[in-house]
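Example 3.2
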Amino acid sequence: MKKVGRNDPCSCGSGKKYKKCCYGKSDMIPDDVRLQFERQKAKQMQVEKQQGLGRSIISLEFKGYRMVAVGNRMYYSQKWKTFHDFLFEYIRSVFGKD
């Protein structure tokens, strides 16, 4: 993409200088950068929709173990295949089996 100088004519065709027209507007952002930004924004909105605005859930699978961080503790088990498997067991341990 050719770099446009501030005093060059604006590439939008308005006839104004770039600095008086499109300088600082998102129109000059390359499409691939804009697409990547929109993907990241959509991913973040999905996480907020699922988890709320609090801290993100930290859960990963490593060598057959599901590991989940809660507060300052790490829990792990080979039985948990998803975060929900952990959650059901964690709730039982906190509130009791009854």
